[in-house]
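User: Hi! I'm working on a homework problem where we have to compare a predicted structure to a textbook description. Could you give me the structure for the chain below?
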Amino acid sequence: MRVLSLSNLTAVEASPHLWMINICRNSCGFCQSLAPRWEQLARTLGNEAHVAYWDAEQSFALPALLGDVSSTPAIRAVLRSARDEEQVAVDYWGAREPKDLARFARAHMPDHVHRIEDEDSWASLELAATAQHLMRVLVFTNRTRGSATPPLLKRLSTEFESRLFLAEVRPRAHPRLAALQASWSIESLPSVLGLLEDGSGGWQEGRFRWSNAPTYSRLRAFLETLVSQPPPHATQFAAAASHQAASQSSTDREL
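Assistant: Happy to help. Predicted structure tokens:
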């Protein structure tokens, strides 16, 4: 759990990810009551978002990024604006239970995942990926049309935004997508498939089959392997990613 101050606020200002910040005072009884639930929130979110404190009893006024508060504790989410021009702070006014706070955080996470639920969204992805010469990473899930995107995919889409297109393909949403799943012989979900440009205008397939459900560490290691040294065969993807993901954090989240 990070305690923020003017000396380390740059970590928030430079981050593309969501920060949940509890503006509190040690002398505040309500703040003391919230503390164990705030710690639980950090464990619940794990790798999905940053959770931190700002001690309002510091001799410094609140920075402009956090705005003003009339009482403590005050809970704010700090995130990039939709146009990625500047960070904004969003006040939280709901129940102060970990599950409610986590739901709010996940709803406000930056999201660059391309949701593929019909033929039009699939065609748009192919056009964009080809125009920008970026690889496509397709995560086939069992989710239905309109359901929420997994938080770990949101997190990874932000980390790799400029290096690849991360798409969540939902075969249950459209028969064409179910046929696409079958054409790649994908039998179990979730499944991850990387498509690399082969240098001649086509795409070269590389897949990674998971013995367990994909977690943040495993998926991140796989994506790093793809963008750093794209190998020609899927077996090389698997070996490199498995080696990098050998040690996983207890906060790792499954897809």
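For your comparison, note the following. DSSP finds eight helices and ten strands in the chain. The CA atoms of residues 107 and 255 lie 16 Å apart. Good luck with the assignment!
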